[in-house]
Amino acid sequence: MDVIELFKKLLRFKSITPNDDGAMKFIKEYLNDYEVIESEKEGVKNIFLYKKFGEGDHLCFAGHIDVVPPGDGWESDPFEPVEKDGFIYARGAQDMKSGVAAFLYALKNAKNFNGTLSTLITSDEEGDAVWGTKYMLKILKEKNLLPDYAIVAEPTCEKEFGDAIKIGRRGSINGVLKKIGKQGHAAYPEKSINPIHKVAQVLHKIAGVNLDEGDEFFAPSKFVVTDIRAGMEVTNVTPGELKMMFNVRNNTHTDKEKIKNFIHKHFKDMNYSLELKQSAKPFITDPNTKVVKTLDESIKKITGITPKHSTAGGTSDARFFAEYGVKTVEFGVKNDTIHAPNERTGKDEVIKLSKVFKETIKNWE
What we know:
The chain contains 9 helices and 19 strands. It has helices spanning 3-11, 23-30, 97-108, 133-142, 195-206, 256-267, 290-303, 318-323, 347-362; strands at residues 35-41, 44-52, 57-64, 82-84, 87-89, 115-122, 149-152, 164-166, 168-169, 172-180, 184-185, 223-230, 237-238, 241-248, 272-280, 283-284, 308-310, 327-330, 344-346. The strands form 6 sheets. Strands 1-2-6-3-7-18 form a 6-stranded mixed beta sheet. The two termini are 29 Å apart. Helices cover 27% and strands 27% of the residues. By secondary structure, it is of the alpha+beta class. It is elongated and about 80 Å long.
């Protein structure tokens, strides 16, 4: 089958997180000349397929077969791909069965490589991601099979195919601040301590503030308030506590300790508590690294475009590779309909993506 037939085959699997709907079995049969390592834990399936061609580098193509629920508003069956006006419509068309199809096709047709080629695919990227790629990398480390380089085929392009690759990602730090006051009657404000009034005095100094200046690769880390609540939805009681939730998509210049100090600077004279949780760590791959330079050259050859190097967007499983010291980049189709009704991707994008990956394998030195 060609890459489009393979793509449509993958789209027909109702692989809503963490159910793979048989996709892993199909992939294993498709790359039947590759060695197999599998894991299944808490309903999450992972598969690692690898083939040693020589003694050189280990290059891994990674992605996820799971998709978010389709939701309402579809004009066709979200798990029966429809081809129309040069686009293919289905859940997962962009995020990210296009990428999986492209690199599986490239791996299937790879004849020579001075090293090891592999793919790591999980059914739990859209979920908690606890027993997916993160868990599988732990197993690979124990088996001394961690790759040297990884290409995660998430959708990265912005306006046209080939215009952007991601050489890093911001981290994500979530916070919950509780300001303790003293509940009382609204008619006697002098007998209570209103936490809303206290927080209001400093809110303008923290909300939307940049915690650093960023750099050539990263935007500044911004303090984003996501929720504030207090009281009992009555007008005659001063609340005894206020809870404020916030998120910081942090670059490599800001960490939990810096956020803790930032909060204390503005709340040190108040009775408060703070919880911080880092759900993802930031990372950056040197643009001069082999995987970036080879991918850049392959994209330019196939598309005529020199891609920009981006770190924008949310998180992906690329962060787990980076934590193990794997030099990691991301490249895939355009990102403009992911998680939306009538998700679609251009047929030509999938074909070109497979060519880019084949070119990358061919020119790896």
